[in-house]
Every structure is written in C-alpha cells, then in structure tokens.
C-alpha cells in the first residue's frame, strides 16, 4: 500500500514544499504549500503551529525551510545569502524546543553552508540536495528501526502505543509505527492511546492504522492500566523527541505514565529512536527543555471550550521517562537493551 507522505518537495519550475496539515486530519486531507516567497519563516510557522509535527518530520521540514530560504536569496550576493541563512536557522531552531532533531538538522545545514565556497545559487543547490538526502535517509532509517524492532515481538503480540510516531511524524514509514508495520503479520492488536490534549493518537495513529488495515483499538489515555491489568497488553512501543546522554527519554506527555504502568505490570517498554534523536550534549532528562503549549488545547478542542474561563491550566507537551524504565532503545544500528550512559556512548561511536 502507498504510504502517506507528510512532506513533498518539487524542484521545478520553482521549489515548493508541501506539508499535510496534521491539525485537520482525519477530517480533511489538505496539503499546505510553502515556496521561496514564504521562505524559512513560513516553515517555522508551520512547525510551531503543528501543521507538521513529530521529531524526524520537523527536522526534515527545517532542512527544506533552509532550502526555500536559499532559493529566495539566489539573486543576492553570497555574503547576503549567508547572513539570511543564519537568521533563518535561528528562526527555525526557535520554532519548537524539545525535539533535538530540529537542532540536529540545522547543524547539518550550517555545516553544508560552511563547506560551500560558491555563490548564492550554489548555496541553494547545496541546501536543496541536502534536504532531499535527509528526507531519503530518514525513510531508510525508519525501515531499519522497523526490522530491528520486529525481531523483539512474538507472534500474536498486543502492543500499546502513544501519540503518533508514524509516517506522519517522519519523512515516511515511522519509528514506533515502523516497528508495527514491519511486524504486522505477527501483531494481533494495537492499542492506540488517544493522547490528550492534541489527540495525535486518536486522529493520526488511528488514521494510519485504519488506512493499512492493521487491527487497532482506540482507547482514552486513562484506560491503559485497565487493559494491562486484564493481561491484554504485551508490550509498549513509543517514539521519542530527545534522548539524553544517560538514556532518559523525552516523548509526548503521558509517556512516563505508560512506563510506570508497564513496570507495574512487568511489560517491556520499548522506545523507537533514530540516532538523530539522541543528544549527547544533554547529560540527563532534567536538562531537556519541555515545551509548554497553549491553554486552549487543554480547556477544549477545535474551537469548543468545556472548562471555565477562569481556571488555571498547565500544558507541558512532553515528559521524561528515566532510562532505568526503558527496556530497550530500538535504533537503526540495532537494539540497545537497558540503555545507560556507556551503552549510548558506544552506540553513537558506531
Ligand atoms: O507534539 P508532537 O506531535 O510533535 O509530538 C510527537 C511525539 O512525541 C512523537 O512521539 C515523537 O516526536 C516521535 S515521532 C517519530
């Protein structure tokens, strides 16, 4: 079956980035267009407003944002283009704080800019080919994660997943959903957490699984313990937004709840994790910046409000699961059981 493409790029006659607007799925399937005129600022707004979301997808989108900005500056001098690109990288980096893939992708763009000795046109060509390469690499990485992860799952397995770590959250195929896709013949059931407040599970993961005919059941976040207690869940698999050097994992709010529950019910808790999501510069989970999002996401949804106006609201978009609660990281280089500082360093050193 043809996979959904969260991001699409066209080079000629003029560069265009198209992003599925994930805010309105599954009700409507709309691609939003970003051109050289919208530049990097347009893509930064798309990331901040969740048109595109999911750690790997926002990394690749940021690389395309840099390519659009470079296309916009093609007629400028190399010096002016370089200054504009540095400003663009700063704007893109500020669009969302938690997923390290954004910083990682922009660091690759900056390195490519530094290596390029040509004029503004050469810079545009370099950044376009880098973004296309990152796009293709991400799909290959997810397929490798899928292959490694599938080996962990026995026949008839019932998996619980949270948020959306699927094709929509990446350049394609997905990380946690990549494992589920790769193991689909063995999977009896996927429990899909609704994922309040933004409903990535109910809207996006449910949509991807229904499209592919993978047996899936949607539950609200507070039902997970019930199904674990009844012996109807065999493993939890989630994605991640940043893994610290000691193995602590930041992922969608509610992930830590599941890790605690998995431990209480002696279930494996797996984290699907491309190497681009590991941040060796962040020593431990406490140092990971946690994005705080708008109160309106908690007080209601899609323009409907159900909470009293006066109520105070907290809306952290991510939480941190301590490394000791993670059974294994599933990466493109293989499975790392009980990840900690030395195993992560060994993984990164290849
Ligand atoms: O706020 P979001 O929707 O960008 O959060 C997404 C997640 O938390 C995903 O689990 C994570 O980015 C991994 S996506 C492969």
Please describe what this structure looks like:
The chain has 350 residues and is α/β, with parallel strands linked by helices. The chain folds into 2 domains: 137 residues, Up-down Bundle (Four Helix Bundle (Hemerythrin (Met), subunit A)), CATH 1.20.120.420; 205 residues, Rossmann fold (3-Layer(aba) Sandwich). It contains 11 helices and 16 strands. The strands form 4 sheets. A 7-stranded mixed beta sheet has the order 6-5-4-7-10-15-16, with helices on both faces. It has a 4-stranded mixed beta sheet with strand order 11-8-9-14, covered by helices on one side.
Tell me the overall shape. Answer: globular
CA distance, first residue to last residue: 34 Å
**Mean pLDDT score:** 97
Strand residue percentage = 15-25%
Strand order of the largest sheet: 6-5-4-7-10-15-16
Report Rg: 20 Å
CATH class of the largest domain: Alpha Beta
The residue ranges in which pLDDT falls below 50 over 5 or more consecutive positions are none
CATH architecture of the largest domain: 3-Layer(aba) Sandwich
User: Structural class, please?
Assistant: alpha/beta
Give a quick summary of the entry.
With 350 residues, the protein is of the alpha/beta class. The chain has eleven helices and 16 strands. The protein is globular, with a radius of gyration of 20 Å.
Keywords:
single chain, alpha/beta, globular, Four Helix Bundle (Hemerythrin (Met), subunit A), 350 residues, binds 5-S-methyl-1-O-phosphono-5-thio-D-ribulose, Rossmann fold
SSE topology:
Elements: E1 7-10, E2 16-20, E3 31-35, H1 39-48, H2 55-72, H3 78-93, H4 101-115, H5 120-150, E4 157-161, H6 176-182, E5 187-193, H7 200-212, E6 216-219, H8 224-229, E7 235-238, E8 242-244, E9 249-252, H9 255-264, E10 269-272, E11 278-279, H10 296-299, E12 300-301, E13 304-305, E14 318-321, E15 328-331, E16 334-337, H11 341-348
Parallel strand pairs: 4-5, 4-7, 5-6, 7-10, 8-11, 10-15
Antiparallel strand pairs: 1-2, 2-3, 8-9, 9-14, 12-13, 15-16
Helix pairs in contact: 1-2, 1-3, 2-3, 2-4, 2-5, 3-4, 4-5, 5-6
The structure holds 5-S-methyl-1-O-phosphono-5-thio-D-ribulose.
Residues 53-56, 99, 163, 165, 169-170, 175, 200, 239-241, 251-252, 317 line the site of 5-S-methyl-1-O-phosphono-5-thio-D-ribulose.
């Amino acid at each position: 079956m043809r996979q959904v493409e969260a991001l699409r790029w066209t080079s000629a006659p003029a560069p265009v980035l198209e992003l599925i607007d994930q805010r309105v799925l599954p009700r409507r399937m709309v691609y939003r267009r970003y051109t050289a005129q919208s530049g990097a600022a347009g893509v930064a707004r798309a990331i901040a407003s969740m048109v595109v979301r999911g750690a790997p997808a926002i990394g690749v989108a940021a690389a395309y944002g840099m390519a659009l900005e470079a296309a916009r500056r093609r007629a400028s001098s190399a010096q002016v283009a370089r200054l504009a690109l540095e400003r663009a990288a700063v704007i893109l980096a500020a669009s969302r704080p938690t997923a390290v893939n954004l910083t990682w992708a922009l660091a690759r763009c900056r390195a490519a800019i530094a290596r390029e000795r040509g004029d503004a046109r050469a810079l545009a060509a370099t950044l376009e080919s880098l973004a296309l390469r990152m796009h293709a690499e991400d799909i290959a990485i997810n397929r490798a994660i899928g292959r490694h992860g599938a080996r962990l799952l026995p026949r008839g397995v019932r998996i619980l997943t949270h948020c959306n770590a699927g094709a929509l959250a990446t350049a394609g195929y997905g990380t946690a959903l990549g494992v589920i896709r790769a193991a689909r013949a063995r999977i009896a059931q996927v429990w899909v957490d609704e994922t309040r407040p933004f409903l990535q599970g109910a809207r996006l993961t449910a949509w991807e699984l229904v499209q592919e005919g993978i047996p899936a059941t949607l539950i609200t976040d507070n039902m997970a313990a019930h199904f674990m207690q009844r012996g109807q869940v065999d493993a939890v698999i989630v994605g991640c937004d940043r893994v610290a050097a000691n193995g602590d994992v930041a992922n969608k709010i509610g992930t830590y709840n599941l890790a605690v529950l998995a431990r209480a019910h002696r279930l494996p808790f797996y984290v699907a994790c491309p190497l681009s999501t590991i941040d060796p510069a962040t020593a431990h989970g406490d140092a990971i910046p946690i994005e705080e999002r708008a109160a309106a996401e908690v007080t209601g949804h899609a323009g409907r409000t159900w909470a009293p106006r006066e109520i105070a609201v907290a809306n952290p978009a991510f939480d941190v699961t301590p490394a000791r609660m993670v059974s294994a990281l599933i990466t493109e280089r293989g499975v790392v059981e009980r990840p900690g500082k030395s195993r992560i360093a060994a993984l990164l050193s290849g």
